[in-house]
Hints:
This protein is mostly helical. Helices cover about 40% and strands about 5% of the residues. The radius of gyration is 21 Å and the shape is elongated.
Amino acid sequence: MSAPRRPTDPPPGSRLRSSWGDPQGLERYYVLTGGRSGPGGSASSLDVATLIVSRAAPSPGMQHEHEEIVRRCREPLSVAELGAHLGLPFNILAVLLTDLLDAGGVEARNPIPASGAGSGPDLALLEEVLSGLQRL
């Protein structure tokens, strides 16, 4: 007896392949996102450095990919890391994150910017480190 198939699994013997090498093809992405091609609303400000954190446990009947996102994001995880773990392109992941953000299942946090980013290292701090090293 074979294992039960999820609705997103290809039929047995299918040879569908997308340009990304995904054996399930682009049809899988269409099914995962319900035909949506990009994020909207709460996920429009997402980028690859945005941190995602779960706010709730996976609920029964949740789409498998949503469940995986919630499970993996118990600790903060960037969108780039999450996409790598799940093997999903950014735009597909962003659509799934929109669903979870709207439902309150996850929270998006902007990464903490470095103070004075782009102006170089803090000179006073470097002098203190140098002074400490010289005393050793």
